[in-house]
Structure formats: C-alpha cells, structure tokens
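Worked example 4.2. Below are the chains of a multi-component assembly; read each line carefully before continuing.
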Amino acid sequence: SQQGEEDPQALSIQEGENATMNCSYKTSINNLQWYRQNSGRGLVHLILIRSNEREKHSGRLRVTLDTSKKSSSLLITASRAADTASYFCATVSGAGSARQLTFGSGTQLTVLP
Amino acid sequence: DSGVTQTPKHLITATGQRVTLRCSPRSGDLSVYWYQQSLDQGLQFLIQYYNGEERAKGNILERFSAQQFPDLHSELNLSSLELGDSALYFCASSVGTRETQYFGPGTRLLVL
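Applying the procedure described above to all two chains together yields the following structure tokens:
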C-alpha cells in the first residue's frame, strides 16, 4: 500500500519556472526522502529531511516538512528541461537496521524548453 | 551511477516459469532491499536483508523469495510467474543504519 500521496499527479511548466510538488503521508515517520526517476530508469536520491527538521535546501531544491499536517513539499527553482522526470516522496519507518521506504505514487514533471 | 548493479537488465519469460534476479550492493553496504514497480501498484517494498539476515518484509508474495549471500550480493527468486508479475524490479542498498538507499538500474521482467 502507498504511504504517501503526491500532488499533483502531473505537472507541466516552462523552463525557468519553479515547480512545487506536495506529498502527504499517514503514519509517523523517522524521515522523509525525495527521489527522482527518469523514465524506466533507477531512482536517484535527492534529499532527506528528518522528522525534527522543518526545511532543508540542496542546490535548486527546497524541501519542507510539516509533521502536524503529515505533509511535505519539494520545490525545484529555475527548472530546466533536464529536470523532466517522475518525483517520488518516500517515508522511512522502522528501527535500527530494519528500515524500509514506503513510496508515494509520484508526480510526473515535464519542463518545456 | 549509484554503484548498485543488477542483472539481467531485461528478462522475458512465460507464465509458470521461474527466474532469478541478481543484485550487487555498493561496496561496504550491508543492507539490500528489493522493490517492485508496476503501473497499477506503483513502487512496492518487497523485502530487506541486512548482513545476510532477513530484516523486514513488505508486500512480497509467497511465490517470491530472496536471500543475501556471504559476499552480500542478493538474489530475488520469482516462481510460478503470472502475467501480473511483469514489472520493473529494483534493488537498493544502504549502509546498515543510514537512511539513504541507493538504487540499481532495475531488471525489467516481462511475463508472456
């Protein structure tokens, strides 16, 4: 079953614009991660935000986490055509070495040149 | 390149058959995870091994099994294959207590 639900399911923007994707989840988490997947390829880890953090930046990426609302958002600034991909949020639960990622359904981002 | 390798890249087989997917984790990573990605179910966690032992189980069917060997590579065995098992199967690895998982390129399985 999916822990996270991304919104929107698909997003199309022009190069240079900002893209915002949202993720909601249901249970308590250790941390939340965002991954990117180019069509049919493996997933690439983008950023991790811990449950006690509210905001994190990495290059053109900004992630926020609101544990009271059980939601997170990923902002990609100054988007490029190369950012076209599917973006997934994943929540981490479990303890010690038994950790598993539970993925959302993903947002398909298309950046038009 | 994540450092995680998976073989084969593509696999085409028939219903009722059995296949084995192989994964080599990044050097030094003790945990291996298997995921299935299909159009209708999305990305589903199947099973995790840590240093040779099963640590967590997700939505893995009884027809599927996995193991992690002493050299830390892992194999996912899928038997009595059905059409609905057609999917991308990903392996990921991580250092035991770290949260970030590094994904391999996947094996695309097509059951005809």
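Take a moment to check your reading of the output against the notes. The interface with chain A takes residues 2, 4, 30-31, 33, 35, 42-45, 48, 50-51, 55-56, 58-59, 88, 90, 92, 94, 96-97, 99-106, 108 of chain B (CB under 8 Å). Chain B is about 0% helix and 55% strand.
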